[in-house]
């Protein structure tokens, strides 16, 4: 990002100067472009001309601007374009790379770019410009919003993030020219955000380089120390590595196999990370060196591995087959660690040329060989499934911090691989559960999940999946997502789908409650029912919505249900409007409603049967059950909260906020059980808790929570239970049952403040 390269401004270059660069500097820039054109041999002549046209425009736009190093600024866009050319990106992406600072730094408008280079290039540059403005060291919500913008830009066109990664890579390579006080912020941002994105998209070469450069500027002393240690080890083990290479080459020659062998050295950052995580000394890190063996076909990979295992003994448990089961980002290779000469472990990676291309370039491999393999689905899919899921999550998540929460786990895919009953392989993040698996198949499967079997055995839905598990999900049409699932799901997709469903459900229920409340309040004004939203009453609803500030009737009713508006006030206003039309209140209804209205509440009553779900909450301070005298409080934005009339919390609220209370009463036949608190004092002794639990079970009361005193009591202990009961009569029966139980000294309901 150019924003990191200048000591005093955010532009990454020295301010424009009237002094033009010297002819030598201009020649250097031109020579740089000549070096770039040498890399464009994969493009047609027309495309090369388009890239040259973009270069000339950028060169002119940046004239007089210098980088912190003193070089002409144009050298930066050229370096970014050169990296994109390494990935064989198309002409549009290369043009965007050359022009990526033109809008922000040179006063060039998007419309001018459209006119000169077309909509596609202008959109790419615009996307990159927005990314350049991102600052990740701001407050958390701003960081989340910035991150969301960046991920969505790359989800719409992956070339945006490829150019962005090329830009960041070049800035990291030249970070030494930047004031030292900026190193930590820029390197941390690269390590935390850009390197994981490069890894998620399979750009392993870029991923390793960004990690290495970040480590160098974040921990300069440790980097230098490790660099010296690796240099010494390299010279000590040179003979050993050369011997291994000769032995391997000889073995393949004897077998008549055509292979390409390349040495591979662990990066300093990965050595440091291993030492730090596993508390090892440098001498204990044995797999610093390894080899990549590139063969013509997939079959040759397995044949070559057989030859290696005959040459040296394999280390048990150190073989991984990422060809049969590729990593989430598309990486494929066989990995095996062998015990080489002098007992030194040497890792080998075996792959084909196509796999090597994907391993090093990931999602960019789509451009690298789409010309030679136009119908190849594997490259088309690389990274795109994850990118598409970002758009899905965005559609259901408007809150930036929530969006960041959904995707951050998916950025670090330490994967487990499981099978569907039809033997299809699925990759999920480590720690993923059955519910994550269900949502990975389809959101409808996740929403209706009721049970699951792993390897044929019934398991709880929160069970974590292990490599090789065969997972079968059981669904039911009536089932809906459980809010408790949010406590254990691991994937952003599952979490966003569950939250979206619960929000939609709560919205619908709040609207229904709001309609009941407004109808009830209108009855208190002498009108039997709400006027319909038809042509006759359309003007009245329009005027009412202007009064309340809502956009629609549904939104108004939802606000009433959530307690954001008072039904009584809205009903009075609606009644005034109806009176202006000549409609009069029903005198009989008016007197009846006022005669039966609750004395201590300001709005009409509502009947509760337990089916209200998210729109009605039963207060945890007093835990009302059917049979208790109750009243309802319309909390701001939290729907209707039901308290007992003697609840101290309710009394305080009533004193302060009386107009928010409404009359509520129990239905004659509640549809479910309700929770309440019970305090049981028992004499200490063996089996006391078991006897109390048995007494509750015999009284048909389910225990949902139990708590006991922390102090070691001498003679007696208080046990606090939350139990589910049908009504007040059932609760009294439960308490009688407890009092008859041996060891129980007393049993009573926990009242407010008790």
Automatic annotation (TrEMBL):
Gene3D superfamilies: 3.10.20.30, 3.30.70.260, Beta Polymerase, domain 2 (3.30.460.10), Hypothetical protein af1432 (1.10.3210.10). Residues 73-172 form the HD domain. Residues 1-20 are annotated as: Disordered. CDD domains: HDc, NT_Rel-Spo_like, TGS_RSH. Residues 414-475 form the TGS domain. InterPro entries: ACT-like_dom_sf (IPR045865), ACT_dom (IPR002912), Beta-grasp_dom_sf (IPR012675), HD/PDEase_dom (IPR003607), HD_domain (IPR006674), NT_sf (IPR043519), RelA/Spo_fam (IPR004811), RelA/SpoT_AH_RIS (IPR045600). Residues 677-752 form the ACT domain. Belongs to the relA/spoT family. In eubacteria ppGpp (guanosine 3'-diphosphate 5'-diphosphate) is a mediator of the stringent response that coordinates a variety of cellular activities in response to changes in nutritional abundance. This is Bifunctional (P)ppGpp synthetase/guanosine-3',5'-bis(Diphosphate) 3'-pyrophosphohydrolase.
